[in-house]
Amino acid sequence: MIDKNVKPEIVFAPGCFDNFEGTQEELDELIASINQMVESGEIFEKARPVDFDNPSDEDRELIEHLNSIDIDAVDRKLQ
């Protein structure tokens, strides 16, 4: 259960947008949209579980995409 009195904090992991294809302006809009959905609670209202044992076609595509990302191939320099 979600405690309505605790404000969730979004922390984006280093490199989480490395595969983002778009402009910096579009990325800024995406981040702002994610933060707004968290603050309003919309992100939790629209959330749905993923059944990995019996995935829907949409979930299967997402799982395949995530599995295809080679995180070791990303040339990232963390400070």
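That was protein one. Protein two is written in the same sequence-then-structure order:
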Amino acid sequence: MHRHRNTDASDYDLAIIGGGLVGGSLACALRGTGLRVCSIEAVAADAASQPSYDERVIALAWGSRRILEGIGLWGHIAPGAEAIHQIHVSERGGFGFARLDRAEQGVDALGYVAPARLLGAAIRGALAGVGQGPEYGHIDQLCPARLLGLRIQPGGVDLEVALGGGSRTLRTRLLVAADGGDSFVRRRLGLPVRERPYGHDAVITTVTPDRPRPNTAYERFTDTGPLAMLPMTEGRWSVVWTAREADTQALLRLSDAELLARLQDRFGYRLGGLSRLGRRVAYPLRQVMAEKTVGERLVLIGNAAHTLHPVAGQGFNLGLRDVAALAEVLTDAARAGADPGGAQVLDAYRRLRGRDQAEAALVTDTLARLFVNPWAPLRLARDFGLVGLDLVPGARRVLARRFMGLGTGGGRTGGGRQPRLSRGLALGGRRD
């Protein structure tokens, strides 16, 4: 797909590198804002190798639903999303457990589970209408297209893009890197990161239990790391199984019956017997945090800024909160006639997002490390901690708000108000 107008080299207010779930959501959010946007994605959206639209399911926090409503995507996602009404947290071999419930939080659901491909289809569908009328704004989609080089100048960023067998040079006033954990932009500019490998992989598959508990998600901590069981449509559960790197290939080579037996032993029988194992894939786990997410005419968002351990399902939800905050400051800049790549706009974004990003990284890293420590006194403390959590409503509320994407740093402005998208409100212009 090569959709673009005849432009000169200085036609864009911002260029988004990466058209996956986070970059695509930002492009959708900016429809109708009057900003001139270019989206550059290397892999065609319908390609089997498209990493954002693969076999994984996404645990969407309640706060993410509100953002997707504001962007105009939720109506296309909701029919294929399974609501999470309860979350059950436990540790294998321990006596403690805790339960979070939507009723206690006064919401329809704590979150939702949706296939990544469904989110991708909603984004593609929303952007397919761009250019059909002035209410959509101007968003050029260059795909497949590959960023070859970039040069940051005082007034903008010059980009060289491989496109359709040739190359094209364009200029943008702001460069947004949404190109994943191995961000080309971040590496090309030599931006430092703090990287922490976990020595584990996430093995992803699906199962069908014979005693399902609809709308209940499970986070079970084991000696190799967390094991998440997330409810899906059609009575299936998505499995996110943390395994030691040294064990991953052996797990992937097991027969379906052998792997189901291993999984049953790890998870237990809260859902009865497990059967109908789906396709299995594995992803390495690491934490990668950019030391700075804002630079001269540059913003890093999503995994390009912060790649987290999947425990508590924070990754994509954190990226969506990046989208909500960045879209708001850019829209406000456009209305004020300000430079979208100017220092004042970028400082406003940094102030909105720094605390939430740091808190999410700390929470996921602490959980991932705390619950694999086999020291007996610590195991006992964890059990009593889960019992106490289950008994104390205030503690459950704090944890639930983190799961729901409503933590104390969850994208609030300096005055305590959440960005408009985080409240389910459109930024302006068309709302589907």
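The chain is about 35% helix and 30% strand. Keep this in mind for the problem set.
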